[in-house]
Each structure stands twice: as structure tokens, then as C-alpha cells.
Amino acid sequence: MNPPPIQWLPVFAVAAEHSNFRKAADILNVSPPAVSQQIKLLEEYLGISLFKRRGPRLELTEAGQFYYESIQPMVQVYRSSYLEFDRKFNKRLIQLNTPLLIAQELLIPNYMSANSTPKCTTRSLGCPPHFLEHDSRLFKA
């Protein structure tokens, strides 16, 4: 028998960690029925129930606990590999648009010393024209 499709494993791991399909769905940015469907497919593929369902709460069965512990190292490598790939190759843009006074007094003095952003991040600071416009009727000289 071949192992189950790998895309089911992170779904199972998150559901097991949070004991709730709704919380797992929120974390995975999918719907609760999508999580439930993937767990159902995984259980059918393995031929055994992985969760005891108690309303919205889930509890791992003995088989579910064993399977969770056995796939956990692989899921961790999967997650950390993706994060490392994302940091290295996906460009990020931090763009701040602010009034000139705030830029001059607060942001520019600290702008280049901000080393907490990854190397692949592009930083941009601007003062759009709508921040520089003013109504001269508001100022009396």
C-alpha cells in the first residue's frame, strides 16, 4: 500500500494540534468542511478512525496519536522548508506613506538602521502629494 497523499498530512497535524476542525480551518485559511473532508479521506485511506468526535471538540484515538507522532517530524520539515524558501526567494515590499513631518522627525532617522527586515525585503518611504497639500484658508498669518 502506498502512503497517503502528502497534502493531507499538514491538515491532519493542525487538526490534531488544535482538537477542532474550525480552528484548523482558520489556521490553514480554508473552510471547516474542507478540513473535515480531508480528514475523512485520510481516515478512509488508512482504514481507521483518527479522531473521536465529541461535538466541535476532537480527541485523537490511539491510532490517531500514533500517526500524529510519526508524521510530526516530516510535517515540521515541510513547514520549515517552505518558510526558508519563502524568506529566500519571495520578495517583500514595505512601503510607508506618511506626512512629511512624521517622515522627517520619526522615520528617516531610524529608516536605514532597521536591520530586522529580511535581505529580500525592499523598503520604500514616500510622502504622497495628498499629504503635502494644505488649505491656505486654515492658516492666518
Structure description:
This protein has 141 residues and is of the alpha+beta class. The chain has 2 domains: 8-88, Winged helix-like DNA-binding domain superfamily/Winged helix DNA-binding domain (Arc Repressor Mutant, subunit A), CATH 1.10.10; 92-138, no CATH class. The chain has 6 helices and 4 strands. The chain has a two-stranded antiparallel sheet with strand order 1-2. The protein has a two-stranded parallel sheet with strand order 3-4. The N and C termini lie far apart (85 Å).
Question: Which features would summarize this protein structure in a list?
Answer:
single chain, 141 residues, alpha+beta, Arc Repressor Mutant, subunit A, 2 domains, two-stranded parallel sheet, 6 helices, 4 strands, 14% strand, elongated
Could you give a short description of this structure?
The protein is α+β, with helices and mostly antiparallel strands and 141 residues long.
- Mean pLDDT comes to 82
Order of helices and strands: HHHEEHEHEH
Give the % helix. 55-70%
Shape by Cα distribution? elongated
How can the largest sheet be summarized?
Answer: 2 strands, antiparallel
CATH homologous superfamily heading of the largest domain = Winged helix-like DNA-binding domain superfamily/Winged helix DNA-binding domain
Number of H- or I-type helical stretches: 6
Query: What is the name of the CATH topology of the largest domain?
Result: Arc Repressor Mutant, subunit A
Helix-strand makeup class: alpha+beta
- Count up the domains: 2
Strand tally is 4
Strand order of the largest sheet: 1-2
Radius of gyration: 25 Å
CATH architecture of the largest domain: Orthogonal Bundle
Uncertain runs are none
